[in-house]
Design brief:
binds beta-D-glucopyranose; 773 residues
């Protein structure tokens, strides 16, 4: 198979799929191989190449597999989503997107298979390193920035994995059983944002089922929601091997099956059309979308000329990695300080831990990049330091290590730490513990590493921990260790970035896009993960991530949105007003009160105290990354989109903004709110039709019928002297009535003067449902 454009002839091009035979149309809708679509040489339709993704280009040299087994062309390994997301920086993420697009274009690949924006429902998901956040606004806003960046270079993206694919366990069969509100408000919201704001060329449907229906054959998901509601204009591609039955999948809106079925499913489509069980127009639509994708790819081909500027992209990867490292903790060395970090360049440093020498910089599976180069933190610390830098391996990541070796490694590390000014201990998850394709069993660091840390701490209290992990880990040592850097998996230039942050050449500014819990047992999905017998119930509902910990007032190790800097920031009073378009405009001044330049990530949360539907205590709605010189003050202006205030109303089956006084909280983290304002928001009109099963509370709230019924009720209650005798003193008798269905009122208040007849009830319903003038 050849690259884009090279497998064509110069025959006249069809204006549309109308020029193609049935067989040709069917053939367009499945892959030729792992990474190519099928060409139709006769009609001048070339094959195009699509490939992983997401944080670098994994273009396999020949043959192909989707598990990262085969060799691929060297490409820049940018920080995986777990890290890049922690930057909370739309501009930076867009620039990384542009670089990814550049590399994709230079290699003649039409579509880069990313970004992945699934919600981190449980820290156990083996693929969390490929995802951005536990929050849909972070995922949606940053996901859109990546898509725009990549697509600005004339190549496409594949927004994945659509949808509710939040675990790897049994991923090809399991049904994510999730209620309408969390599905819309948590799991689909980010996808909606990316589709509406950035129009990815393709969306990749996931392997799993949603409420019993395979994503790949769900017309509600792929057509009603994605296209009719959100206005998606591109093509839906299957995850590799996600098609269960080809005929229902194409009817549902799943256009391109990948990889190749060697023609088997094409033949099924042809047969279904011939025997009349599939309307040919359905096939025409799917084939037309593949054709559109090919045309877009042709138009964009060659937008960037090679060769790749390896140095420039490595430098960008280093910058992005530096902006992705979260300073979790930085205690003072003594009562007077200074803080342990940043390190002095002439300090005597003991670097400890195998990850310093052999970095874990990306996760395993289909996203594995063959990097153009690879920095180690040890080399880069040595490159920047002017003092003595000793190294001890500390522990081994090998599968089996004998007790003598463990003791010897530990002893060597303690020796190095005890003669150093500071020990920098690199801990993390061995690669075998997290990957695409399976989930983790726990969130613990290996016991051997924790024991090493204790020994080093005893030898030298000035100890910094640097973590390398794709999914969050428990930090039982957080109280005892003075400084902790969460360095995630940082991509190929992570070693240099870590050195930059340790020495203060880069002032850390990243913040957590997911909560670090104290214990696995505290996590929201703990009792419902990974499910059983091919079903996983999303029992925590809306309460994912910080929404859970806040609602239950639980302590966490480090909260969502947390991250420190080597400087400090002061916030002024926030102001919030509703704009003409109905959005909320928020302003707040932020001052850099320290003595070095830094960046603050300003976060805006809202809530609606006393609202009528269940809601989290606070929900992130917007954020901004602001660079400030020492002493500088800036007014930061942020916009909360009106649509992001909406909840999904299950009665009306649509988004509804409830009116009321919204609390707008501006903070440095979800648990460090610096200033609040209140703003009155006018609600959406929502008048549900009245029926016999409407509750009396609903009837009484009705603008037309309500006053009539309220007056009648007052009269009726006044006549019911006996009621007082059976109600406890002080109880509000009307509360008892609130949930009473209108249609049954007659049974209790029927007959006699002032009684309620079925005709009267029907009359009220008709009055309420009559078109309003
Ligand atoms: C993964 C996708 C990936 C595809 C192609 C699948 O197993 O879930 O994320 O893009 O393979 O490699």
């Amino acid at each position: 198979m050849t690259d884009l454009m090279t497998d064509t002839t110069t025959t006249a091009r069809p204006a549309s799929v109308a020029d193609l035979t049935l067989d040709e149309k069917a053939s367009l809708t499945s892959g030729a191989s792992f990474w190519y679509t099928k060409p139709i040489v006769r009609a001048g339709i070339p094959a195009i190449m699509v490939t992983d993704g997401p944080h670098g280009l994994r273009k396999q040299r020949e043959g192909g597999d989707h598990l990262g087994l085969g060799d691929s062309v060297p490409a820049t390994c940018f920080p995986p989503a777990v890290a890049l997301g922690s930057s909370w920086d739309v501009d930076l993420v867009h620039r990384v997107g542009e670089a990814l697009g550049t590399e994709t274009s230079i290699e003649n690949v039409a579509v880069l298979l990313g970004p992945g924006i699934n919600i981190k429902r449980s820290p156990l998901c083996g693929r969390n390193f490929e995802y951005l956040s536990e929050d849909p606004i972070v995922s949606g806003v940053l996901g859109a920035a990546i898509v725009k960046g990549i697509q600005s270079k004339g190549v496409g993206t594949s927004l994945k994995h659509f949808a509710a694919n939040n675990q790897e366990n049994d991923r090809m069969r399991s049904s994510s059983d999730v209620d309408a509100r969390p599905l819309r408000e948590i799991y689909l919201r980010g996808f909606q944002r990316v589709v509406e704001d950035a129009q990815p060329w393709t969306v990749m449907c996931s392997y799993n089922r949603i409420n019993g229906v395979y994503a790949s054959e769900d017309p509600w998901l792929l057509t009603q929601v994605l296209r009719d509601e959100w206005g998606f204009e591109g093509l839906v591609v299957s995850d590799w091997g996600a098609v269960n039955e080809r005929v229902p999948s194409i009817a549902a809106g799943m256009d391109l099956e990948m990889p190749s079925s060697n023609g088997a499913t094409d033949a099924q489509l042809v047969a279904a059309v011939q025997e009349g069980s599939l309307d040919e127009s359905v096939l025409d639509v799917a084939a037309g979308r593949v054709l559109d994708l090919v045309r877009k790819a042709e138009a964009g081909a060659g937008a960037v000329e090679g060769p790749l500027d390896v140095d420039a992209h490595h430098a960008l990867a280093r910058e992005a990695a530096g902006r992705s490292i979260v300073l979790l903790k930085n205690a003072l060395r003594g009562p007077q300080g200074p803080a342990l970090l940043p390190l002095a360049k002439d300090a005597r440093i003991a670097v400890i831990g195998e990850f310093a020498e052999k970095p874990r910089y990306q996760g395993a599976g289909s996203s594995m990049i063959n990097p153009t180069r690879l920095d180690s933190a040890l080399d880069e610390i040595r490159a920047l330091a002017t003092g003595e830098v000793a190294y001890a391996r500390g522990f081994s990541n090998a599968l089996s290590v004998d007790a003598d070796e463990v003791a010897a490694l530990r002893e060597e590390a303690v020796g190095a730490a005890s003669v150093a000014d500071v020990a920098v201990v690199f801990l993390g998850l061995p690669a075998r513990l997290e990957s695409e394709g399976f989930d983790r069993d726990d969130i613990d660091l290996p016991a051997e590493q924790l024991a090493l840390l204790d020994a080093v701490l005893a030898a030298n209290p000035n100890t910094v921990v640097v973590l390398s992990n794709g999914g969050v880990v428990a930090l039982p040592f957080a109280e005892r260790v003075p400084a902790i850097l969460e360095a995630w998996l940082l991509g190929q230039a992570g070693g240099g970035a870590t050195a930059d942050v340790l020495f203060g050449d880069v002032n850390p500014s990243a913040k957590l896009t997911e909560t670090i819990p104290l214990r696995l047992e505290d996590t929201p999905a703990y009792l419902d993960f990974p499910g059983e017998f091919q079903h996983v119930r999303y029992g925590e509902g809306l309460f994912v991530g910080y929404r859970w910990y806040d609602a239950r007032r639980m302590d966490v190790a480090f909260p969502f949105g947390h991250g420190l800097s080597y400087t400090t920031f002061a916030y002024g009073d926030a102001a919030a007003t509703v704009t003409a378009s109905g959005d909320i405009a928020v302003t707040v001044t932020v001052t850099n009160t320290g003595d070095r330049a830094g960046r603050e990530i300003v976060q805006v949360y809202t809530s609606l105290p006393g609202g009528t539907v269940q809601r989290p205590v606070r929900e992130l709605k917007t954020f901004a990354s602001v660079a400030l010189e020492p002493g500088e003050t800036r007014e930061v202006a942020l916009t909360v989109r009106r649509q992001d205030l909406a909840y999904w109303d299950i009665r009306a089956d649509r988004w509804v903004v409830e009116g009321g006084a919204y609390a707008v909280e501006v903070g440095a983290s979800s648990r460090d709110i610096r200033s609040s304002a209140s703003v009155d928001v006018e609600g959406d009109a929502l008048q549900l039709p009245l029926s016999r099963s409407s509750s009396m509370a609903e009837v009484m709230a009705h603008p037309v019928v309500g006053p009539v019924v309220q007056a009648a009720m007052a009269q009726m209650m006044a006549g019911m002297e006996g009621l007082d005798a059976i109600m406890p003193e002080g109880a509000d008798a009307s509360k008892m009535m609130d949930s009473f269905p209108l249609g049954r009122v007659g049974m209790f208040a029927a007959g006699g003067e002032g009684g309620v007849t079925p005709e009267m009830i029907d009359g009220l319903i008709a009055m309420g449902n009559a078109p309003q003038q």
